[in-house]
């Protein structure tokens, strides 16, 4: 080993540069591959050899030496690493300036490679030398040292923050400001300004205050000295980007000064220095908007006014002359020489920098303050449209990009459910519903005319921005653009047919797709169908996958225009779409639309060929689901498929055995659609095979598939089946009732199956089926009872017989017999009037005296259900029973009222007074479970008869008894549903919100839960009270120590957090507001609440907060970027320390949050964020494994 090292050292001194290069490379590989093999002396010799090569005459050898030193930095002894940095840093100051660059690069490379534990050594070795270099008189040395200092501060900021003694903050800050106020060169001052920005990250609060006072004072003192003012503004710009979130206290003086600077621009002449100063001032605004969202709210309107004024700042150019020229030469395209060269403009005039800064300011407001979209549309959008005529290509492109971002931020929900499934690749997952875009409707003609006028440009970047903007306009304005279809079509045609750039073609096709989708009046589209056909055919013949895919989606939208077409357009599209099958799944969707909408224009052979191809795609694992969706669409259309039973049934039925849930569901839909229409032509054998396959996939564990299977079973049992097959079907369907996950939808489907079976198979042995179902009835499985009742109801001959049987069962000594009889009798009572049965109510009521709890519960259900068959007759009897009953049986009897209100809603309103009286009497009951029933009944009753209950409810909601207030507060949770009459509820909104500030924490909790329900179902009722709700939430989501109770359990003490349910309800309400009232989102306030929630000790509250943060990332990514530092400060605890005794839900969602944050373009180059991702990579892997 020693001989190898000596050999490599000799090679590094060889006269041939190739030998020196290879010697360095080999020695580096040896050290890095076998770290720790060198003793201290030999390691020092190797390091000296590398350092000597930094002065080598060959640049290749110098570069290799830099690489080697960086690679071995983390492999060598710490003292030797310090020696390397000391020597190299000293060389920057003392050695020949010709080698200064290579020394600087070497230091940067080592800093980038070393790990965090080496930070103290790196800083102590470099910082004193860099400080000396910055205070030296050599400007070139100052420049290199300032640049290195910035790298050092960026790389080791977190270590310096934890140990402030590593650098002398005040000293270095003084040296940097001295350079900034001197007459040093432009490049030096620029690097010093950046260094101040990097330094601000590690400064203490007192030093930040000194820094800001110095900057603000220097700006005030040099308002008339542009040469100095620029650098102070530049430094302020970097400081605001780095620590903008800490500058809230300095905003007033900062913003007023910066606005004054922008307003001081010469309106007659363009001054380069002033333009640069103004741009940096505007950049400061951008940073402050992102990082100080709450504090800057009151200045947003002023900043937007500045942005609107300065985005038209172009003192040396008269756009009115251009407008006059355009009127004279309307329709003439620009020649190449007419377009001014960017570089030429930049040399002659720099006013474009001001316009660029203004547009960036508008973008920052758009992306961080979505609640201001309406104002942006009404004010800013008009100015942006007038700026479409911008003369400088870079800025023109930015104008269109700004308008696109404004539209993209408001993506209107406009697609039907079916279209969403088809167009899923081109539509974001989160569809935002905002009415703000309506502000643009009046501007549509101006927008279209201005956009068309600018499409003559020859500049590719501008053309891309224009077409992308067009795609966003068509998506946002929808049918409002259809009248301009003929005007926009030539632009789309030119972009698709005459262009080769996919960045132009794809958005052009997206625009066409949107126009076709929204073309309700098809006249203008049909008149230009030939042009549209040429465009689509050209896109389908394009070699690029993305173009084909978008063209196929446009084809799907075009099919409704072609319905009934007599020419060969449909055949051409069909032929080309088939050739694209292997390239894109969208081809399958397109063919299905052609078959379902335009089958009359296709020949029988073409239809057969399409069906065969769709069937063939079922064997492709990747395209199977799409093919099934396509076949389902065709089945639902009026296309005659009666001759394709083998293609559909034989190909689809085997897919029911596949493991993929989606494959099963869509297969069931296809079979239901086809057999429902053409079942008689299929044959008994195939029907039996399909029945067998369907029964095999019905399980309690997969109720989603079972729901679709039940619909198919209803169709299959309409055909003649052998008795054993029917029995197997009944057994399998009945087995579903055992599931603990049975939902209302599945229950209805099961009952619907037996309803269908009994109506369409009158010859069946129903008595045996009923006997079988009776065995399945229990107090926890009431669905079989409902099935028995529906069969008895449909088969009237059995009605009296079985009713008598179950009445006798009430007197049985067997508990199970009594329970079954009660449950079935109750279900019969829902469908039939049992008032003719003597003393039935009294018979059921007597069973409440039974010692068996199951009998009592069954009696409660039966009592309420019987009442439904003849409401007017039975209700007074039930109410009398409740009034006169003992306290111990009151809960179960009140449950019968709940059953009545839930089931017989249309009749309850007429008896609201009698029902409400008994509910109010028990509103202050000592048992919580009774109060819960009262709340639910009151809420549902209010939904049905709110106007009649208003007077009494007003008294109860303001009752002095806090228990009554709590019961009423909770009742509003159950009173809302979509489509209800909101007159009564609307009058109670102020009272409900007032309850959210009640002194009793339980009332606040119930009120927040009720507000969640109201927001979810009827968001418009709370739209004007959102600001008040925000104030309430800001207080309720905090952890209140007075609500944390400590219980002494002897050996240990247990803490109970009574505020947890309130906080959880608060975060759920915030999430619901985000979802349902997006136009009232207040980004700064919600950002603050997110930071509070991330620090919550409860896993549920933290998880809910992370869900809100995920929505914020999609909704206002700029605001998340501005709060990144604060968010990252909270996440490590969530990633590494889940709350004790809880799941790791928050850890998993936090990982998802970071993934989504990483997708924000600005995060890709953010070193702080990327370092956080790297440092927590292990947590991500652990979360994924779990």
UniProtKB/TrEMBL annotation:
Protein name: TATA-binding protein interacting (TIP20) domain-containing protein
Alphabetized UniProt keyword annotations: Repeat, Ubl conjugation pathway
UniProt entry tagged with the keyword Membrane: no
Family, per entry: Belongs to the CAND family.
Region (Disordered): 328-349
Superkingdom per UniProt: Eukaryota
Residue stretches making up the TATA-binding protein interacting (TIP20) domain: 1022-1157
KW Repeat (keyword) present: yes
InterPro entries: ARM-like, ARM-type_fold, CAND1/CAND2, TATA-bd_TIP120
SUPFAM superfamilies reported for this sequence: ARM repeat
Coiled coil: none
GO BP annotations, alphabetical order: SCF complex assembly
Organism: Euplotes crassus
Transmembrane segments: none
Any Pfam family matching the protein: TIP120
């Amino acid at each position: 080993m020693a001989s190898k090292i000596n050999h490599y050292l000799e090679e590094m001194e060889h006269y041939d540069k190739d030998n020196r290069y290879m010697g360095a490379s080999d020695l580096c590989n040896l050290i890095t591959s076998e770290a720790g093999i060198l003793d201290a002396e030999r390691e020092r010799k190797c390091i000296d050899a590398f350092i000597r090569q930094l002065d080598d005459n060959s640049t290749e050898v110098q570069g290799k030496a830099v690489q080697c030193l960086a690679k071995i930095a983390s492999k060598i002894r710490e003292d030797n690493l310090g020696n390397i940095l000391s020597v190299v840093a000293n060389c920057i100051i003392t050695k020949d300036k010709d080698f200064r660059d290579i020394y600087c690069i070497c230091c940067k490379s080592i800093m980038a490679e070393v790990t965090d534990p080496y930070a103290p050594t790196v800083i102590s070795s470099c910082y004193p030398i860099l400080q000396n270099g910055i205070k030296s008189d050599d400007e070139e040395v100052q420049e290199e040292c300032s640049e290195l200092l910035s790298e050092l501060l960026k790389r080791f900021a977190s270590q310096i923050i934890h140990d402030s003694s590593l650098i002398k903050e005040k000293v270095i800050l003084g040296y940097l400001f001295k350079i900034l106020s001197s007459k040093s060169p432009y490049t030096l001052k620029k690097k010093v300004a950046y260094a101040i920005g990097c330094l601000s990250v590690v400064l203490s609060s007192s030093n930040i205050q000194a820094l800001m006072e110095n900057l603000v004072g220097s700006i005030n003192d040099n308002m008339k000295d542009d040469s100095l003012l620029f650098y102070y503004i530049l430094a302020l710009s970097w400081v605001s980007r780095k620590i903008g979130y800490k500058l809230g206290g300095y905003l007033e003086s900062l913003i007023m000064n910066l606005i004054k600077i922008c307003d001081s621009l010469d309106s007659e002449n363009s001054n380069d220095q002033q333009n640069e100063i103004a741009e940096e001032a505007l950049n400061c605004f951008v940073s402050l908007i992102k990082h100080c969202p709450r504090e800057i709210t009151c200045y947003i309107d002023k900043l937007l006014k500045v942005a609107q004024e300065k985005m038209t700042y172009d003192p040396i150019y008269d756009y009115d002359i251009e407008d006059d020229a355009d009127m004279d030469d309307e329709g003439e395209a620009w020649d190449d020489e007419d377009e001014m060269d960017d570089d030429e403009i930049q040399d002659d005039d720099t006013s474009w920098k001001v316009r660029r800064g203004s547009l960036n300011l508008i973008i920052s407001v758009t992306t961080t303050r979505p609640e201001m979209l309406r104002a942006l549309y009404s004010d800013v959008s008009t100015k942006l449209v007038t700026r479409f005529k911008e003369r400088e290509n870079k800025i023109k492109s930015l104008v269109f990009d700004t308008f696109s971002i404004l539209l993209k931020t408001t993506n209107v929900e406009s697609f039907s459910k079916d279209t969403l499934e088809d167009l899923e690749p081109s539509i974001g997952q989160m569809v935002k519903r905002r009415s703000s875009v309506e502000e643009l409707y009046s501007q549509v003609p101006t927008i279209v005319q201005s956009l068309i006028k600018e499409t003559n440009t020859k500049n590719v970047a501008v053309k891309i921005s224009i077409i992308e903007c067009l795609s966003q306009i068509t998506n946002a304005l929808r049918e409002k653009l259809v009248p301009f279809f003929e005007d926009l079509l030539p632009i789309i045609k030119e972009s698709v047919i005459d262009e080769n750039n996919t960045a132009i073609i794809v958005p052009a096709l997206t625009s066409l797709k949107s126009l076709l989708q929204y073309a309700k009046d098809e006249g203008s589209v049909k008149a230009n169908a030939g042009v549209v056909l040429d465009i689509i055919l050209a896109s389908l013949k394009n070699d690029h996958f993305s173009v084909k895919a978008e063209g196929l989606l446009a084809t799907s939208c075009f099919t409704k225009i072609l319905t009934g077409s007599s020419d060969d357009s449909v055949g051409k599209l069909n032929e080309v779409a088939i050739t694209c099958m292997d390239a894109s799944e969208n081809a399958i969707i397109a063919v299905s639309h052609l078959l379902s909408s335009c089958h009359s224009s296709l020949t029988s052979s073409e239809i057969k060929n399409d069906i065969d191809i769709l069937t063939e795609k079922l064997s492709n694992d990747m395209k199977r689901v799409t093919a099934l969706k396509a076949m389902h669409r065709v089945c639902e259309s009026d296309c005659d498929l009666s001759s394709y039973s083998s293609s559909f049934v034989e190909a689809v039925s085997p897919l029911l055995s596949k493991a993929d849930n989606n494959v099963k569901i869509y297969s069931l839909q296809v079979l239901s659609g086809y057999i429902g229409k053409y079942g008689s032509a299929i044959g008994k054998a195939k029907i039996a095979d399909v029945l067998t396959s369907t029964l095999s996939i019905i399980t309690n564990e997969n109720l989603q598939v079972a729901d679709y299977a039940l619909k198919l079973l209803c169709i299959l049992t309409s055909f003649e089946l052998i008795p054993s097959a029917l029995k197997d079907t009944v057994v399998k369907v009945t087995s579903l009732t055992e599931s603990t996950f049975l939902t209302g939808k599945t229950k209805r489907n099961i009952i619907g199956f037996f309803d269908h079976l009994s109506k369409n198979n009158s010859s069946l042995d129903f008595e045996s089926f009923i006997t079988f179902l009776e065995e399945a009835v229990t107090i926890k499985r009431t669905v079989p009872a409902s099935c028995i009742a529906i069969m008895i109801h449909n088969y009237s001959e059995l009605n009296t017989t079985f009713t008598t049987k179950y009445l006798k069962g009430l007197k049985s000594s067997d508990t199970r017999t009594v329970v079954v009889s009660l449950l079935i009798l109750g279900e019969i009572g829902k469908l039939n009037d049992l008032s003719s049965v003597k003393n039935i109510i009294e018979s059921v009521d007597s069973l409440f005296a039974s010692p068996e709890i199951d009998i009592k519960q069954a009696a409660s259900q039966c009592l309420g259900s019987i009442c439904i068959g003849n409401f007017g007759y039975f209700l007074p009897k039930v109410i009398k029973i409740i009034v006169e009953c003992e306290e111990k049986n009151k809960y179960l009897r009140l449950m019968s009222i709940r059953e009545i209100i839930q089931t017989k809603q249309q009749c309850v309103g007429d008896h609201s007074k009698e029902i409400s009286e008994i509910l109010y009497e028990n509103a202050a009951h000592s048992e919580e479970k009774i109060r819960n029933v009262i709340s639910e009944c009151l809420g549902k009753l209010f939904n049905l008869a709110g106007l009649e209950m208003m007077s009494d409810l007003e008294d109860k909601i303001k009752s002095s008894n806090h228990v009554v207030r709590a019961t009423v507060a909770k009742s509003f949770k159950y009173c809302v549903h979509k489509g209800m009459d909101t007159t009564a509820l609307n009058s109670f909104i102020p009272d409900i919100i007032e309850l959210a500030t009640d002194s009793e924490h339980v009332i606040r909790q119930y009120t927040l839960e009720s507000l969640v329900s109201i927001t979810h179902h009827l968001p418009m009722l709370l739209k004007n009270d959102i600001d008040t709700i925000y104030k309430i939430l800001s207080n309720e989501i905090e952890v209140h120590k007075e609500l944390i109770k400590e219980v002494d359990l002897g050996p240990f003490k247990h803490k109970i957090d009574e505020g947890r349910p309130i906080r959880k309800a608060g975060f759920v309400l915030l999430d619901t507001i985000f979802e349902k009232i997006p136009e009232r989102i207040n980004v700064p306030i919600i950002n603050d609440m997110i930071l509070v929630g991330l620090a919550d000790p409860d896993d549920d509250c933290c998880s809910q907060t992370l869900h809100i943060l995920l929505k914020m990332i999609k909704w206002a990514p700029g605001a998340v970027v501005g709060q990144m530092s604060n968010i990252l400060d909270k996440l490590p605890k969530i990633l590494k320390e889940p709350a004790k005794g809880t799941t790791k839900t928050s850890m998993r969602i936090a990982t998802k949050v970071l993934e989504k944050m990483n997708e924000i373009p600005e995060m890709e180059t953010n070193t702080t964020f990327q370092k956080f991702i790297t440092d927590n990579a292990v947590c991500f892997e652990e979360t994924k494994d779990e």
